[in-house]
Amino acid sequence: MNKKYLPRIADKKLELYLATSGAVLIVGPKWCGKTRTAEEAAASILYLQDPDHAREYKLLADTKPSKLLEGKTPRLLDEWQEAPGLWNAVRFAVDKRSSRGQFILTGSVVPPETKDMHTGTGRISRMIMRTMSLFESGESTGEISLQDLFEGKKDMFAVSQMNIERIAFVLTRGGWPEAVGEENEKYALKMVDNYLDAVAHQDMSQIGNVERSPDRVYALLRSIARNISTQANTQTLFRDLVSNDEGLSDKTINDYILAMKKLYVLEDLPAWSPYLRSKRAIRITAKRHFIDPSISTAALRADSRKLLSDFRTFGYLFESLCIRDLRVYADSLDGSVYHYRDQLNFEVDAIIQLKDERWAAIEVKMGAGEIEKAADNLIKFSENIDTTKTPAPTFLMVLTATEYAFQMKNGVWVVPIGCLKD
């Protein structure tokens, strides 16, 4: 029996894109629910990986691709990159029909661009789906909304239902739709292991049709996991790996990292560059993050019990969990998430910036004992912003693993991750 569909934040975005574009391309990691979400919106479906028809579909895509586009609209073309010729066929059909909401394309890898592929600009909108946030999986109460905070709503109070043990569990389980709802941790962790196994033994070598060593994939995943939520560069990873792999080079590491990004396994957090009152140089190196924090725990062979016995590692992984959720929530508001760090190593864990230039600064802290210091850090940071060139922040927030959501006397919001939504 198929699991009941859990509504996704991406549902409304897909609806908007279909209403304003001829076609929508949904990208993101395998198993994050792209096809299931697209099925909810589609009126007809073509599964390019259907083993009974895959060869026939590919032949038809090379000779008469327009036949594959026939059907009620919106028509879903699932894993369309299996027949790259469909891209130009969709583009042409959108032009010919002059109508919106014609096609939905889904894929788990960045397809190779060829000289025959035309841009889809103005015809095909692109949206990314990530794994499920805690609000989508039902763990966050959603009583505190990012949208409300950006609109300046006051007098909000909420109570998280998640204790630290539950946070450790959902972090290791991840936001994979198949794992959500699974309360047996052994089974949930095995699902994440299966995902990494597919990445290492199959998917990585499909990028550019280059054979890549599964052992090196796993070693690199572990190295990145040990450096999660940091600005670890290639040299840092190289030093971590070279003692066990003498044939390794910077070039090889960069190749593997690029392949992981094309598979949406890695999604680094870019740096934010505001105008400051002081003349500090801003570091522009991205922070390392996986698309889902459970990839880190699976690579490290860590379960929730191990996390609870190593709060230093737990803290880094909790930050990665928060970044995933902030990305999902910010994306629904047409916003992006960044981090900030300057030459004096003054840093802010997350910056959310909307398209209208409103922005917010967020520090991630697990325990209540760190909240006041984090709030002071945010205020100090906001006071150094040159507001003649960069607007003042709309709000400041400490995102926590604690129980209560409220606004402090200094104006800084304290919000448990178990209370937040878009």
Could you characterize the architecture of this molecule?
With 422 residues, this protein is of the alpha/beta class. The protein folds into two domains: 10-128, Rossmann fold (3-Layer(aba) Sandwich), CATH 3.40.50; 144-183 and 268-421, no CATH class. It is 38% helix and 15% strand. It contains 14 helices and 14 strands. The protein has a seven-stranded mixed sheet with strand order 7-12-13-11-10-9-8, with helices on both faces. Helix 7 (185-206) packs across helix 8. The longest helix has 22 residues, at 185-206. The protein is globular, with a radius of gyration of 22 Å. The mean pLDDT is 92.
What helical percentage do the residues reach?
Answer: 25-40%
* Count of individual helical segments: 14
Low-confidence segments? none
β-strand amount: 15-25%
Secondary-structure class: alpha/beta
Shape: globular
SSE sequence, one letter per element: HEHEHEHEEEHEHHHHHHHHEEEHEEEE
- Total DSSP E strands: 14
The number of domains is 2
Distance between the termini: 31 Å
Strand neighbour order, sheet with most strands: 7-12-13-11-10-9-8
Mean pLDDT: 92
Rounded to an integer in angstroms, the radius of gyration calculated over CA atoms is 22 Å
